[in-house]
Known about the structure:
heterodimer; A: 717 residues; alpha+beta; Phosphoribosyl-aminoimidazole Synthetase, Chain A, domain 2; seven-stranded mixed beta sheet; B: 234 residues; alpha/beta; Rossmann fold; nine-stranded mixed beta sheet; two-stranded antiparallel sheet; 11 strands; globular
Amino acid sequence: MDYRKAGLRPHEYETIRRELGRDPNETELRIFGVMWSEHCSYKSSRPLLKLFPKEGPSVLKGVGENAGVVDAGGGWGLAFKVESHNHPSAVEPYQGAATGVGGIIRDILAMGARPIASLDGLFFGRPDSAKTRFLSNGIVKGVGGYGNCVGVPTVGGKTLYDERYEDNPLLNAFCIGLVASDSIVSSQTAEPGNLVVLLGSKTGRDGIGGAAFASVELGEDTKASRPQVQIGDPFVEKLLIEACLEALEKGLVTSMQDMGAAGITSSASEIAAKSGVGMILDLDLVPLREENMAAWEIALSESQERMLLIVRPENLDAVLSLGQKWDLDCAVIGKTVEGNRFILRKEGEVFADLPASLIGGGCPEIHWPAERPKDLDQRQSFEFEPSGFPGDLSQPLLRLLASPSLKEKSWITRQYDSMVQVNTVQGPGAPLSLIRIKENGNLVAITMEALPWACSLDPYRGGYETMARSLRPLWVAGARHLGMTNCLNFPSPENPEQFWEFSEAVRGLADCCKDLSCPVVSGNVSLYNESAGRAILPTPLVCSVGILPVSGFPLLPGKWKEGDFLFLAGIENASIPGSHFQAVLQGRLVGRPLPPSPEMETGFMERALQTASRQIADSAVPLLGGGLGIALGKEAIASGVGAQIDLQIPTHPLALFFAEGGARALYAVPEARVPEFIRTWTGFPFRMIGRVGGDCLCLPQSEPIPLQILSNAWKGA
Amino acid sequence: MNASVVVFPGSNCDRDVLYALGKIAGIPAVPVWHKDPVLPEDTDLVVLPGGFSYGDYLRCGAMAARSPIIQGVREHARRGGLVLGICNGFQVLTEAGLLPGALLANSNLEFICSPCLLRVERSDTPFTNAYPEGTLVQFPIAHHEGLYFLPERELQKLEDNRQVVFRYAAADGSAGAQHSPNGSLNGIAGIVNSSGNVLGLMPHPERASEKLLGGTDGLGMWYSIKSWLEGGAR
């Protein structure tokens, strides 16, 4: 077999030959082809990921395990991670999305954590195209169909429409789980003489080569790759969760790994390499659902709902009877031994004999050339052009409220069970999600953010702003951040301009994390999101997690009260470039988003946390997509009361109301607390902008908008 | 006073119900495995919780209705013991023939998760005696198959027997088919059997039992059961 057919590059093949001191056989070549694919090896992104700060006082387990774990207080940890399932969802939307959800849940389970919430990031193409309807319906039903059945609530997410996702929709699935801090499972704890146990579904030919398929551009031929998309069975996943958690609780498991990309090979060799043991697997012992499967097919199958358990011999009977209790296949497929060899046998014949560490860790990094896009200067030159928008602000506000990315998403969120497990304090549709931890009474705050428009104009600034914007809702609600996870969705790194954008965006994210002391605890990279030369926008997606102590009280949006004073905290002239106003209403992305300001962020954080903990405000919302105008509109709709906005400043009204970015929030403060609010925010830009009351939203020099009209626009009624 | 919560392999609201009963309502509750043929001897109330019992790739609840524990549940119901089926549990009760009718796919053919207003049609059942008749309560629904269906003549019989306990409603107090989020006939959200000791409902009272989570209207159901079992309302 030719190494190129396995997807290997010449220097990679040479590295294998050099390390082995011989030619690899066919099974071994296929293993390297998958394990050294971009998807599994991170060969193009590893140099960049080194920029992320990974340490912090909150980190219990950092990057390197299936998911990072941070300290949630009282002896409890939170394991979380976000992961893409873009290529499969583009080909087979329902199953692609469903198995994306299933995969991330198993990552969390592999840490020994009970999954407590999911979020999903959805990026679709033209909102009115038949293709988008087909893909978005399938993906949403897939996310719901899987999450609803396994009993993990889907509590929030992010949805954005842009024609550059037309052929390459993105599905990023986030999951968070709860684990006792002293019971975190590691893949580094296998010992020689343990048994290797496969628990869960039977192994079939589904998803073979899925990782390799996710590592190239989507072509017409790869879209015919349905067999490379896995099929999900959420019912079995539910059984698997309960069985694994029960096994862990009884102390029966020495180490554990989920099986995702590259199946048995990836999970087993990872445990072997990280634990420093050898492993011998007999593939005849794997329960199969198809006949005549070759050794490499069994070794690389991506059949879903399987976990690999490392078990001491004396615990085997108890593990087998647990499998029986939960009606799951459970089989010993091999053992750990002294040394570092990873050996696959079938019918007594050795099909692969490799150093374990070479499989997952041996792929040489690729340092792609980066080049600043030639047209960037031209795209970044910007002069605000308000023509086409006469003085009245109500029209652009109503049009933005009704735009697909900003309008109400209940058609999506209604299809998700957001309440199972009875912990959902704040579900979908808010700037953050809040989950109660019954075990210690604290609230977990979670955000998901991505700003591809800003990133396309200035990936460094866009990356920085993405990260900061994921943290601000936590602070405004009163939660301190514990850590973040990210999913880096980009097109091919082989194009130097695209690789430059990728590098700059990562640098922006990393700098913000360093400036604000937010450790990166896990993540995922998805490259080659392009087809037929059409690339997606640079889309780094961030999920941040924070904690609100039991004594705290979350400060949430949608709670305006008649007579409240409205305050804008933050600067008045943010950025039109990269905003919804520019992308949606002006239809042309130009200029540069705001430069980062760490001082403003920390100043904002301190005051926002104080405002929340002292309960100075009735309602608060960070300024996100659509800026101040959309924040006012949504607050009025959710609160069921209008407001009179009155301010005369030199900033152009369109920029004042629709520019985006920077540390900013809208507060509604009861009259009696106004002096305290002013004291709290002194030293930071803020301004009183109006007062809550009436049944219209009245913007300066504009027609008053009745609440019903606002609400109809937003809900598309 | 003891409650048993049946755990089918795909139940996913079992822990939620155990929490609501044990931690909030103060009714001691234990999980009971679906493979057990009998209930714990001292069981007063059995709850069949929400979820996907056996994956429900077949008709929802069809396989669960044939599981070993259902023998024990039947026995318990026959003796006049209380049985409460929530969501998937309601589907299981209809499949087992312990309640009439069937739960079909929602009329929009989509899963619906949403808060719902319900009107309490009877306050003389073991499950609803704490609510004055006509009370409006808000419980969330979360299901794909919740359209309550019964052929017309039997439906009339069900209404004549006053077996409808919860009906989808609007804030003005009106209730009926026009307020069904899922297409349920006559706006039916929950029913009892003719002797009144078996209740099935699609909405989730356990999700409306804490202020922190947005509402406490479900507490009335736990308190009703408690006072019934304590003998106060019997």
